[in-house]
Specification:
Elements: E1 3-4, E2 25-29, H1 35-47, E3 51-55, E4 61-63, H2 66-78, H3 97-107, H4 114-121, E5 123-125, E6 137-138, E7 153-155, H5 156-163, H6 169-177
Parallel strand pairs: 1-6, 2-3, 3-5
Antiparallel strand pairs: 4-7
Helix pairs in contact: 1-3
């Protein structure tokens, strides 16, 4: 299904909004990648000036006991109101896999400097694989892969389902408005 890119291979691609037209980009498949390790490698590459697109963000994993990870994330959402500002409207914590991964990468960039802001603009994160990236070679990062499948871990998709943010509203809307052609059966369909 996917063509795996070699480590030095950079792909040419169709137009992406916000990216210059003839700039080489790297497409990284986040499936079975540990989120923190993936984010640190991507942040370093962004600071070096690369344009990066991450696909399958919902299949990236967080290692650790799934119940503990879920409780920690829910605690961040629930305790958003502070003593100094109890009326603070929230939540400001992302609840979809693409936004969670993008927020983690943002935390590893010097985002308050010009260099960090420009690096963050060179990043795109997607749930699934968009149509324009299906034929391009996808890269995997070996040092960020989940090596032992028996260790406790949770995918970003499962985490978002547990905190109530998946599937996102725009995905839900697309799923409910899609028409499905069913085969005609019964007396109406027979000649």
């Amino acid at each position: 299904m996917f063509v795996i890119a070699k480590p030095g291979q950079i792909s040419r691609r169709p137009m992406i909004r916000g990216f210059p037209p003839d700039v080489p980009i790297r497409v990284i498949n986040a499936e079975k990648h540990i989120v923190g390790r993936l984010a640190s490698v991507v942040a370093k590459r962004l600071l070096l000036g690369e344009y990066i697109v991450i696909v399958n963000a919902e299949k990236a994993v967080i290692t650790g006991d799934p119940l503990r990870v879920t409780r920690w994330y829910l605690k961040r959402i629930v305790e958003w109101c502070t003593h100094y500002n109890p009326e603070k409207a929230g939540p400001k914590i992302p609840r979809t896999p693409d936004r969670i991964l993008k927020r983690i990468i943002r935390g590893m960039l010097p985002r308050k400097t010009w260099r960090g802001r420009m690096a963050f603009k060179r990043l795109r994160v997607f749930i699934g694989v968009p149509e324009e990236f299906r034929d391009l070679p996808h890269e995997i990062i070996p040092e960020a892969m989940l090596r032992d499948e028996t260790k406790p871990h949770i995918t970003l998709e499962e985490l978002c389902r547990r905190v109530g943010g998946y599937p996102p509203k725009y995905v839900r809307k697309k799923l409910t408005t899609r028409y499905i052609k069913l085969p005609i059966t019964g007396s109406e369909g027979t000649p």
